[in-house]
């Protein structure tokens, strides 16, 4: 046995039955006339659609929204709003602040990043397991990775940053036989 919850309409909040309608004006301020009852009956008053919800006409969207390209959206500012804003009028809506997930400051060591420009000075963006974090640029004497072929650094799961300015990644200077597997360190040019 299937049990369905009753639809409650703002215009008919006293009753548990949805309110039948013929046009949008028959419904409450945050409702529209649409959708037929189960079994193909008369249309019912339904709750308005919020921002970025699908719509077919303006009446389906909540007050203050319009149906644009099939989605409920807030209205566009009037033409010339930028000029009025420069004149100092507070009558027009301000731009919304950037979303919280967009970093506003440069990343510190260990912060997630997409590219080196996301990191603070002295840090670069390098792979760490399957994500990328800000890591310190290598200083003189620190072990570095020398890439023989372009693109091999993409296979590393623990990337190192490049050597700091004025340093180059070269084989470690030790007396003895030439060993191709010896360590590379950051050294002065």
UniProtKB/TrEMBL annotation:
The keyword Protease does not apply. Pfam families: Dickkopf_N, DIKK1-2-4_C-subdom1, DIKK1-2-4_C-subdom2. Residues 109-138, 141-189 form the Dickkopf-related protein 1/2/4 C-terminal subdomain domain. InterPro entries: Dickkopf_N, DIKK1/2/4_C-subdom1, DIKK1/2/4_C-subdom2, DKK1-4, Dkk1_Cys2. It comes from the Eukaryota. Gene3D superfamilies: Lipase, subunit A. The keyword Signal applies. It is found in: Secreted. Keywords: Developmental protein, Disulfide bond, Secreted, Signal, Wnt signaling pathway. Residues 20-73 form the Dickkopf N-terminal cysteine-rich domain. Belongs to the dickkopf family. This is Dickkopf-related protein 1.
